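Question thread 4412

I'm putting together a teaching handout and wanted feedback from people who do this every day. The idea is simple: show students a protein as raw sequence, then show them the structure tokens that encode its fold, then repeat with a second protein so they can compare. Below is the first pair exactly as I plan to print it.
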Amino acid sequence: MEKLDLELCFVEILIDGFSLRELDIKWLRERIGYVGQEPKLFHMDISSNIRYGCTRDITQEDVERAAKQAYAHEFISSLPNGYKTLVDDDVLSGGQKQRIAIARAILRDPAILILDEATSALDAESEHNVKGVLRAVRSESMAKRTVIVIAHRLSTIQAADRIVVMDGGQVVEMGSHRELLHQDGLYARLNRRQADAVA
């Protein structure tokens, strides 16, 4: 079996207590969901886009449940062909595409969900919906899931259990939103700067 080959200096990454170096890459990929800044949707219907890459048998009910968790079901249902709507650049907004990509990741039921700048290009309403998705995914009692959110927009991560602040490739602070504001370090300064920019 192919193993993940990493050359890491002074760092060991553990998943459920096992070193990343020891894990089978195929096994690991099946347990990670990833949504990037610019989601990749395919020229196929919305239901097929949400199902894409899922290795288990999926029903339409499963697809719709994932879409509901991603705050996508309502807008999908309002489209003329619903879940059978063909994805085209002119049909969906950036926020709608992002929620479809999140539904795809949720459907796979990953142990680790990585959202890499998933809200950076969204308007305020779409960002609010995606933050709702994050709250829903975190509070699901059915799934034990680690959600890693990579963000420059601090409003996206305020509800996180733990925030890791990096500067120049180094971890400089770690804690909850409240703890980091109380420390009055880099996170607090960035938070004030972003709040001033919005005001």
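The second pair follows. I'd like the answer to focus on this one:
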Amino acid sequence: MMSGDKAIPEYFEASVTMGKTTTQQVSKRTVASEKDHANYTLKQLWLNRCLCDQRPYSRPVKLAELVLYSLRQGQKGEELNAKKTYFILSGGETWLEDFGEVIVMHPCKLSFLSVFCRRQGEPPLENGFLPYLGCALQFGANPLEFLREKQKKYGHIFTCQVAGKYIHFLTDPFSYHSLIRQGKHLDWKKFHFATSAKAFGHGSIDPAEGNTTENFHHTFIRTLQGNALDALIEAMMENLQYVMLQSRTSKFQPHTWVTEGLYTFCCQVMFESGFLTLFGKEFNPNHDKNLLKQETQRARILNALENFKEFDRIFPALVAGLPIHLFKSAHSAREKLGEALLHKNLLKRDNLSELVMLRMFLNDTLSTFDDMEKAKTHVAVLWASQANTIPATFWSLFYLLKNPEAMRAATEEVQSTLESAGEKISLDGKYISLNRKQLDNMPVLDSIIKEAMRLSSASMTFRVAKEDFTLHLENSFYNIRKDDIVALYPQLLHFDPEIYTDPLTFKYDRYLNENKEEKTDFYRNGRKLKYYYMPFGAGIAKCPGRLFAVHEIKQFLVLLFSYFEIDLVDSNVECPSLDQSRAGLGILQPSNDIDFRYRLKGL
């Protein structure tokens, strides 16, 4: 390792623009003091060809002593965002702006980087131009186009170095089952356990680490599916109506139009209703009509929402590896959410969900977590229940408002369902009630929600290799190394024109057959697909809360159409683009909000 102001080895070069022009040898440059930091934009970084080619070296080649460095909050006195970091070049520091998504190593941990070389029998390898980062910037800029390009170049399986990890992307939907059935060799929990601990700040929830013996996946299935789902649906139906008709509209003038951002509206209604459903209420609004208590409770939940949004804003950076102390306000927001969900505070609330009650019991009996770590496992539950449901709700409603034919079909189904259930809409305080069976018998809304999620989902399915093994596909096999990641990116599937005609167009009846029932027959190259719709993942790792999430969105739409008149302020408004910064995490948020207006019907 080199220290002080020694130059970088001559074999390491970089192209750096200073202002508009200069390219220079980074190995010639050192920075004497913090005040001398200049703003640089990294345009291209490459290695000498003799280090970059894929010759079969017998051992990794040590490269320049290059690391990405965590900005020390206390010393620098400013907050790091996801587009700024320190670049340490053997003792010299260069300030980089607009560097895109970055991975940052911890302070003072300088280390050697090495080139991963393809072995015989392994998938084709794309190392990228950037040491350690590899293909991270290209992938982060546009994952779908990047993977399409590599698929065209290499075929249906290839390896990319992304932020120090080697990810084998499997893009043939007929081979997905080959990955999903490899439980003996592939671990689906390791990545999720590590990500949760890193992002939410609790200790490892991997039973092998000794902090807890709880089987989290089993807990979620037990409390989010089966009979437990019925209770959640009932509670959510009541809470949505409380929020829509009392909490939000208590000060509205009857028949007066209210203009608001569509995403803002969905965010507030779904967060408040979902929070009350899972984490209970400070009082029972059916028995206590005290407006001050209602306003106080709502103020606390909306404050929690602001903390949630602040934390969620930097969540992609946390998953990428940046420590949360670099984000002062987000760190504070996460801690405040944890304080609100301490067991001593939850015990004061009424109507806690079975999920939260069981998690509290298991935390207290099976874990060695301290009080704040227990609370942060509840923050993880809160995030999981909201982060994808909110944008999915937005997209479902937005596409309905933009498509009159879809809106007519949806409202007709809602009216028919309410009539069949004997439910009458009124504003006299009597809430609508639809049970799980009735909600499940709404194929038009199902299709609309599926189509909206198909167009906005960018989830990624990960498996980590437990050992070196051979992955057998339909007509070939490949060697996979221990600790490598095998991944599926379902957006490739969702936007495949051979599976979905006009894949970028919203078609509300895409998932309906000729009899207006659920369509499950989708084909590629004349062959029927087992996997054609994967926003919730697949196999044993499929999201255990997916059923509740879809029912929540369906309930939201049913109630909105029943009680309100709604339309877009500008009927010709363009569809907002997808915020790609969250690619790989689930449903993408819109890049901007859309104005809409609503008012209570004259019932």
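Top answer:
Good format. For the second protein you could add a caption like this: The longest helix spans residues 291-313. The radius of gyration is 26 Å.
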